[in-house]
What does this fold into?
Amino acid sequence: MSILAIDRIGAIVRGPPVNPAFTAIAPDTAGMPLYRAVKRALLGAVEAGTFAPGAALPSETDLARAFGVSIGTLRKAVDELGAEHIIVRRQGRGTFVATHNEGRFLFQFFHVERNDGLREHPQVDLVSFERSRADDVSAAALQIRPGEPVIEIGNRLRLQGRAVVHDRIILRAALFKGLTEKRLGARSGTIYQLYQSAFGISVVRAIERARAGAAPADTARVLGLAPGVAVMHVHRTALTFGDRPVEYRHSIIDTSQHEYVNLLARPAR
Amino acid sequence: MSILAIDRIGAIVRGPPVNPAFTAIAPDTAGMPLYRAVKRALLGAVEAGTFAPGAALPSETDLARAFGVSIGTLRKAVDELGAEHIIVRRQGRGTFVATHNEGRFLFQFFHVERNDGLREHPQVDLVSFERSRADDVSAAALQIRPGEPVIEIGNRLRLQGRAVVHDRIILRAALFKGLTEKRLGARSGTIYQLYQSAFGISVVRAIERARAGAAPADTARVLGLAPGVAVMHVHRTALTFGDRPVEYRHSIIDTSQHEYVNLLARPAR
DNA sequence: CCCAATTTGTTCGTATGTATA
DNA sequence: TTATACATACGAACAAATTGG
It folds into this structure.
C-alpha cells in the first residue's frame, strides 16, 4: 500500500451545513452525501491514473482513514464503483482498478454470434490505416470540430474463418498521439486493451445505433460479398469516464450466417 | 401495512454454523448469506404476488422484525432488489413493487428512434390475431413443445405517422388464458402493461438477436414497402422472474428513416 | 403554514466470518 | 500458522422527504 497514493487523494473536508464559510468545502461536493464525495474522489483518482488499471487500491481501513470517514461510508462508495465495473473487489486479496480485459468484457459491446449461438473471439485483420480530417458525422460523434485531425482504421473481423464484420474506426488524433500502423498491428490483445495500455484511455460504455442497408462497394470487397446485398450497419460511439467520446466506429456486418446479439441483462448477483 | 403479508413471508430461521442439526434451517438458504436469504424470500413474495405490482411493502423496521434480522441486513437485501428494478424505494414514502410502467421502461426494450434522435411513443395498430400451434423456432424460444397452443398477434407500430415496425408476437396460450382480440384492442397502455395487469406476468428483461434481410411479402404490405427492400429483423425473447420466457417476438423494422438504438448504459447513480 | 408521525437515506461504530497470501 | 483484506451482521443516531392533521 502506498501512502503516497493516499496523500494524493486527500481527505474529504466539509464543514457543518450551518455555516459553510468557516470550513473548507470541496466545491463539487456541496450538498452531496459523504459517500458520494468519496466515490467521486476515488473515481477521479482512477481517471487521473493515480491508480493504474490493474493496480491495487489501498485497503478499506487505510482508505477510510485517509478520507476521514467511517469504514461503512467508505464501503458504500467502493460498492458503487464496483457495481459500475470501475473497480473489482476480491475477498482476501484487495480492491483493484478494473482493466476491462477480463474476457467477459470482450463480448460486452460488439456482440456477434453465429446463428446457432456459437461465440468465438474474432480474428482481426488490419485492412487500412490513414490519417485524415474529421467529416461532419464523425466530428459530431466525437464532439470535435469538423476538420480536426483523426486516425481512420479499417478492420476485418473473421469468425470461424469467415469474414463477417468490416469496421471503420475514427479516432481523435490528439488523444492517440504516436499511434502507428505498426504499433496497431503489433498489439497483443484487443484494440480497447491497446487504448488502455498505450494511451491510458478506458472505454467504459458505448452507444450503438443500427440499421439495415446495402453493402458498400469497399465493404463488399473486404468481406467478399456481392455488392448491394443486405447487411447491418452499426454506428457506435465508445465513451470513457464522464461520457466523453473517444472512438466512433462504423461496423458493417454480414448477417447471413451471424447475428448481432443484445442481452438486456440485469446485473448478475 | 398488512400484518398478514408479513406473516406469509415467514421469518428466516437458521441455526449457528457449528451444529446445524439443532435448529431448523431453510433448505434453499444453506450456506447462503443471511441478507441473500432475505432477498430470496422477498423476491419469492413478489413473484408469488403476495405483494402486487405497485403495492407498498411493509416498512424496513417491520420487515426486519418479521424476518428476525437487523435493519442493516434487511436493507442490504432490499438494496439489491432495488438495483435490479424489482422494487422501487422512495424516501419518506416507502418501498413499492416495481410496475415497469414508469415511462423510462417504455424505451428499455424496443428502442427505435428517428435518424435524428427523435423519440416518440409508437402508435400501435392490431393487424392480426389468431390461435395456432407453436412451430419449432417459437417452441424453442418459449421452452415449450412444438405444437403446443399459442396465440399469434400481428402489430404495426407507427412513429411520426409513418409505419416503421411490423411485430409478430407469439404467446403461450396456457399463460394468457382469456386473451381475446377484443381485450387486446381495448387495452389502455402497452402490451407489457396488459401482461402484468391482466395476467400477472412481469417482463423483467429480454434477449434480442438482430440481422439484416429482405422484407417478407406480408410485412411489405403492412408497412407499405417495396417487397425485398433491406429491413432489420429482431428476434426477442421476453423473460420474467427466473429467466422464464413468456413472449417470443419477431420484429421487422424499416430502417430507412429510423434506427434501432442500444444504450449500453451504466446504471445511473 | 406549520407540526408531528412515518419512512427511507446517511453515517457512525463494533464484532465476527471467510478468503488469500 | 499468521497476518491481511474483504464480507457479513448487528445496532444506534440523526437527516431528509413525505404525508396528513
